[in-house]
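#structure-requests
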Amino acid sequence: MSRAETRIQRDAGVPTVNLRKCKLVVLRGPEKGTEYIVQGEVIRVGKGAENDLVVSDETVSRMHFEIVRDAKGYLLRDLDSTNGTFLDGAEIREAYIRAGSVIAAGAAELKFSPFEERIQIFPSDKEQLGEMVGCSLPMRQIFGLVERIAPTDATVLIEGETGTGKDVIARTVHALSKRGDKPFVVVDCGAVSGTLIESELFGHEKGSFTGAHNRRIGAFEYANGGTVFLDELGELSLDLQPKLLRVLEQREIRRVGSSETIKVDIRIVAATRMNLKSEIEKGKFREDLYFRLNVVPILAPSLRDRREDIPLLAKLFMAQLAGDSDFVLSDSSLALLSAHDWPGNVRELRNVLERAMVLKADPGALVAPLGDDGLTGVAKDSAASELGFEPGLSFRDQKERWTDEFERQYLRWLLEEAKGNISKAARAADMDRKYLHKLLKKHGIDPRNIG
């Protein structure tokens, strides 16, 4: 495991997060004996008020040096100071610091000590945190984690299937942070074409490429002081990944077509439905970038792994969608919704409820197979006879029997529409590709025989 990666462990069954920080103790100078606990990817030191650590000594430059945390450790870098930066007596331009090293800036001396703050993450008692909703243990554990790490500036990587609400987690992290009143800028790395994503992130100068008629401010510069949410990060091209790594390590950017370096104060929250470790093995994602992003990892659970949240979410969505409508969810409808596997997760649940309101149909019927002529989801008065329910079978067994038949018919139809293309079928169904493969394997359907 990289030294730059936050470790999540379990202590007597309680998850813990180890956040890396460092301590700087003033050994010589006006603030002698003062201890500073600092955290962040980049720590800047100087006598200017804009620094993370202000040293009020006339021999110290306005911005004297910075400490950058990367995959190898902590890198000390002089910022063109007047009197130079010294590490254990030797003048440096940049060098890695060891625990206990002494940094000299002008007449001031500081002792450097890295350490880890161990934070225990207990499940929250809440059923809602920011925009997140859930009473299940997986969600309450995420609530507890977000409550602890949101006030920090730690980079967050959210992984999970499509539709699990990764964006909702990201917005909640931002809202509960000290940057909550600053910009929250979303960049969908999978929705912007490869030729334009660099401009979207970094901005561009007028005339820097065909079509660049005006200067454009990119997401990182626009979000200065706030948070950038990089959605579908796994889609980012390999040629842009080193530039993102530079932003993470140095907190500076250059617009396309410009040689000017611009410092930015941002927090990064990233999300992906891909398995980035698998992408690293395929050579499609940089390992150093992964470890830089994976400071605080959060796994967004699928809806089928938190079924007890379905009634809570359904009632919340109905309240949002119903308006003046008297549409009410029955207990039987909630039971059907709770038994469904939801390949599209929370997003699919909301879509089903919205469709039910438009059709004035029972939402439970929209996810329960209704026979060859009943896939429209409109409930029928003689449902028991048309579905052929078997006496003596429990509700769950009846549901599983008809769900299996529905899945087989739907998957064949879906693949026929997509001409056997798995990726196209998954997008059309708003379904995670891995889950689609799992369903196809379950029903013995070979996409090569369809199309």
